[in-house]
Structures are given as structure tokens and as C-alpha cells.
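Lab meeting prep.
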Amino acid sequence: MRPRCNVVVLISGNGSNLQALIDSQDESHPMQVRAVISNRAEAYGLQRAATAGIDTQVIDHRSYASRDAFDDALIRAIDTYQPQLVVLAGFMRILTEAFVQHYHGRLLNIHPSLLPQYKGLDTHRRVLAAGDPAHGCSVHFVTAELDGGPVAVQAAIGVHPGEDIAALTARVHALEHLIYPLAVRWFAEGRLRLGDRGAMLDGEPLPANGHVVRSEEI
């Protein structure tokens, strides 16, 4: 039987994607969330983790003189749990290149857009302002380029005529809660990997927009 994949999740806020990962766990799941670490003590996701019996830590970035010093402390805390995978779930910090290299190939993030479109913040408003017919979310491997790492999994929805930002945001969040646990499961099963040519699924290179999820997979 394959050993379970130890996962550490980094958060800064509510932790709804963390909750989706927690809810996806069962005895047969190849992944186990070992710890949740936040840079903010008030992050509600810490309560979600504690309720699920998962270790929590707070490492306040304001206590460190530099981004490098904070990331060094974060690495030490994460590595205590010997994770095979580190998952960013609303972690609102730009990571140093040294941090990203330390976890090369085992650091995932979810971004609320159809990458490579709309990197950065405020994606839902930008999609509506542009009048785009579709929107969605992407799970990607993290590299030194902000929101620029190889896309592993992507899912899209149509934008409804006259839809407001609250409704669109909620629908994209629902997609996130489906595809992030799926991507983590595939990684834990050894199916999803970062190769020399980008993201790979079942040993085959994925296209630039990753594996586009079909309804039967979620």
C-alpha cells in the first residue's frame, strides 16, 4: 500500500479551500493534511483545522525584519512535518525564490482565473470589466514568476449576462473547492508531477492550460 502523502497547507484567511481539502479526506485517501500554518493569528482557517484535529501554527510575517527571514522561519516550520506537498490556500504572501526552489515540484497554488489570463489580484472584477464570456480557476505549480507556474488543472464556467461580482465569485469558489482536492489527490497518487517540460499527468505532458476537468471527474 502506498504511504500517505503528507501535506502542509498555508493560509491567511477564511480557509474555504482548506475546508474542501479536509472534507475530501477519508481512510482511503492517499493524502493527509498534517498541519496548517498561517501568517495571521485571526485567520478563520486555523479554527477549521483545529476542529478537524490538525496541527496549527502562526508565523506572523510582521515579526520578521525581511521577507527572506520570514520565509526561512516558514521553511523550518513546514519541514518539521516532512511534507511531500505544500499547498497554498489563500496564502497572501509573495514567496521568495529561495522558498519556491526549496519546494520545487511540490508546491501547488490555486488561482481564480483561467491562467495565463488575469494573473494577480481582483480577477473577478477584471473579467466582468473586459466582458469575457468565460471565467474559472487554475491549479498550478508554483515558480518564481507570480501566478506563472505550469498549470496542472483548470475548470471554466460561462459568465452570465448581467452577472454581478458576488455571484460570479461564488460560482468560481465552488469550482475551486472541486478541482483543488482533485489535483491534490492526483499528486498524492503519483499521477500529477512537475517535469522538465512542465506539468505532467500519468507521465504525459499537459497542455499550457493543464488538464481541463470534465463534469464526471468532479
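Slide two material, second protein:
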Amino acid sequence: MDKEKIERAVRDILEAIGEDPKREGLLDTPRRVANMYEEIFSAINKDPSDDLQVFFEQAGHEELVLVKDIPFYSCCEHHLVPFFGKAHIGYIPRNGKITGLSKLARVVDTVAKKPQLQERLTTEIVEALEKQLNPLGVIVVVEAEHMCMTMRGIKKPGSRTITSGVRGAFQSDAKVRAEALQLIKF
């Protein structure tokens, strides 16, 4: 990441909006923004499936594994303002192939740390689990509030966008999907 280039660009933006980048309160802003961008866009070009460590368990568990209410923060690629919310991830292991629960949260973080669309974020989480775990089924539900709808444009604070991605057993079996959705709402 070219932090010096970001700093120059932030100074240009401050000037373009009529501010003085040499004003006391703004002197360190370009550096702060560059450091922030380094952090919030740290997963550009990273494969989220690399976050999933695979374990083989003797228990042979082939029932739903669900982690819900995983918080995330991302940045809308259309306006470069935040959107934030929570993700719910469920999968049904195949042949005892599971991952650590924290790894599911790590996948969410990785996918969120780049300029993003909620729809793509949802799909990338699903695809990472499919690629690395080859489960019998995957379900991902993402709920988020988008600041591009809250603080600008239509200005509708509190509105939430919900996206989902379902594959395998969750796609083909309505009872399996209904069970997962009920547990997510619970």
C-alpha cells in the first residue's frame, strides 16, 4: 500500500473541499487516514479460504454448525463510506471435515477488509467455505447498515440490508434451510 500517495490525495481532497490542510486540527489527518486505510483495506488480494484451517474429527459430526452475530465493518466501494453489521455462518460438515469456530469469524474479517459490496461479501464467504471445507451445505446471512444510505443520499438511518447465500443441502432441502434460519433468528 502506498501510504505517501494516500497522504497526498487526502491533502488534495482537503484543499478541494475548501479546507486548509495546514490548519492545526488537520495537520496529521493525511497520515491518520493513510494508517486507517492500511488497516481497513488490509485484505486486498488475500484469499479468505486461507483462513480456514481444516480438522478431521473422529466424531463424524454431519449436522449443522452455526456461528451467528459475527460483527464486521467494511467500506462501500461506491462511496468509500462504512457499512457494518453482523454475519451468520452455518455449514454441514462432510466426512467430519470441520474448522475452528474462530476461523469462521476470521473469514468474515478478511472478506470485509477491502472496498466491498454486501452482495459480494456474502458470496465470497460462501465460496471460501465451499472451497476449503467441501461441506454438505453452507448458509450465510449478512445484515448490515450502510452509511451511504444513512448519512447521505436517501438518509434513512436504521434501515438494514439483508443478503443470503445458500449452497448444497441448504439450497436443496427446505427443512434444513428453515432450521438454520430459525436458529439465526433465535
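Talking points for slide two:
Strands lie at 54-56, 65-76, 82-92, 97-99, 115-116, 137-146, 161-168.
The first helix runs from residue 3 to 16.
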